[in-house]
Fold:
Amino acid sequence: MQTTQDTSRSEELMELENKYGAHNYHPLPVVLDRGEGVYVWDVEGKKYYDFLSAYSAVNQGHCHPAIIGTLKEQAEKMTLTSRAFYNSRLGVFDQYITEYFKFDKVLPMNTGAEAVETALKICRKWAQEVKGLPADDTKIIVAENNFHGRTTTIVSFSNDEDARKGFGPYTPGFVRIDYNNVEALEEALQMENVAGFLVEPIQGEAGVVTPDDEYLRKARALCSKHNVLLMTDEIQTGIGRTGALLASCGKCDCAGHCERQEATYIRPDVLILGKALSGGAYPVSAVLADDPIMNVIKPGQHGSTFGGNPLGVEVAMAALNVIRDEKLTQNARELGELFRSEMNTYIAQSKIVKLVRGRGLLNAIVINDSPDSDTAWNICMRLRDNGLLAKPTHGNIIRFAPPLVMNEAQLRDCVSIICKTLEEFEN
Ligand SMILES: *Cc1c(COP(=O)(O)O)cnc(C)c1O
Structure:
């Protein structure tokens, strides 16, 4: 279905971004104006399924009434106090989120990158003050093709040239190893002065690269053996997305709340959350850890003006309530299985799609073409025309991550849009 309507308003608005905004993104040409649940509308009123969910920030669906209701109510009462004073919501949130994820303490920040920075600082300080490592040689192990955000330190250990090049001098103290390679981790842990291992349970930006079932469990055991902090970046994978409350829960959906805990739950030393922590309504991120680790941070040593503000923490509690009340992890697990099974049926007779991978509703298809080709981009353009929004990552991979409030009929409708679109590219 080709768009025949007048798109001059969209053109105008894209031109404004182009002319007055820095060119630090390459958006798909669609100008969104409104969102509700799994749907978004452009300025011309055309309706789409959102299959990106703002990189998994809107797991709870666009403008969830419970989250927006809380936001409005709190916004009229108080938005910001700074941490120079106590506020009436932060302590309530601290208790709520530490019980939810079963850690002693939380340190609230705003963006994902800030939460990762916070984890790295906590790890270094813990290593120096508790483990006794030297200040000038405290190493943190990271994975190849990681994505942890955009700060100077974080891009220092990225191997994405676009993210890194031109931004040096780089922060030292990071060692990169192969992802999903237990032997590589074991070898790196032989180095002197290792403080921690920072890892994504599934590498979202790298193309939903999903490690072996046993990878995190073995990494957990190795980190414990070497007294090194396991830090899991669950900013994209956490909060129901992968059909588990945390992807590090493996097949479990409880973050330690059920009896299967011993069998399936891999508990990190430092848990990093962002994105869906606020259901996309407000930037809220957080780092969780137990006392022996978190207590290395003392007054004046770390913080943020907006971190822990009453508006953000109220929104976060509402967003976490929605995940639990609406059983979104379970829904993500069931719909994810259906999605991969339907896609595999398609792929069995496809030349253009190589494979589908992922967990829960964090999935990707790999297009059978060079990463330098524009096939994946062109497919995403046709998907847009056909009413579904997704974005290529790493050239020939398309990530599919709809809001978790989707129902089965909607998912089947989406599968049919995707398959119909892919068929246009088979030759
Ligand atoms: C998005 C993301 C970040 C960075 O979060 P921002 O809010 O964009 O700073 C870090 N790690 C992972 C895994 C992410 O997906």
